[in-house]
Amino acid sequence: MSANSAASSPSTPAQPTALYGGKTGRRVTVRDIAAAKERGERWPMVTAYDALTARIFDEAGIPVLLVGDSAAMVVYGYDSTLPVTVDDLLPLTAAVVRGTSRAMIVADLPFGSYQASPQQALETAARFMKEAGAHAVKLEGGHRVIPQVELLVSSGVPVMGHLGLTPQSVNVLGGYRVQGRGQAGDELLMAAKALEHAGAFAIVLECVPSELAQRVTASLGIPTIGIGAGPHTDAQVLVWQDLMGLTPHQPKFVKKYFDLAGEMSRAVRAFADEVVSGAFPTEAHSYH
Questions:
Q1: Which residue positions form the known binding site?
Q2: What is the pTM of this model?
Q3: CATH for 30-257, among 3.30.1490.20, 3.20.20.60, 2.60.120.260, 1.20.1250.20?
Q4: Which residues are catalytic?
Q5: Which residue intervals make up region (Disordered) (predicted)?
Q6: Model confidence over 261-276: pLDDT tens digits?
């Protein structure tokens, strides 16, 4: 047998495609995410709320984009995630789906849209998948949302969990504080295992001690996604406006990779100055 025929033989195992930056010619799926966990491969997730930025992130190879309820602050100008509604997030999710071709698009279920009952959760998730084209949903909470997760998964909806600092419960938690210290860490670990057992395909861990995130990650067969949870999770997520330096106040866990606010300010001032001086538009920017 020649080398070429051996390479094309059906018995030759296919090389796994990297989750970040890989070229599959199709959407990333929960199976791809599970395979990355098995390989010990780390991967990034960022938020997205519109088609243009989603396209940039998709072409950069980001495998999962989250249309977060953080849109309440960074898109709609509220001071928490609580006011944002399903009708607010549906068009944002649809835009992100239209702007991408490879990334899995996960839609946040906003406050009040799933807590009442598993049936309410399914009705909300169905809207995001049918009307906006989302590929999965995310919801916050541990044991109290297990019935919701079980019904969603059994109905064909991939579910991402969210533990630790759950912003929709900020009033109960007493503010934006680190969660999971002491005995609460054991409770969070049990909640993570319960979510996995219920069928969640991944779990976000927000603002928990690094050591706890490491324990949870090692204890689960599904990936953990950290945000303020240290370096030992399987993936990391940030709000894109935070990592680009667009938001004025950033928490400790954010690393600013670019001064987008400064660059935008300089650009718009340059435009304004040229308008005032008459330097813009020139003949090159005029029609005849």
A1: 69-70, 108, 138, 140
A2: 0.92
A3: 3.20.20.60
A4: 206
A5: 1-21
A6: 999 999 999 999 999 9
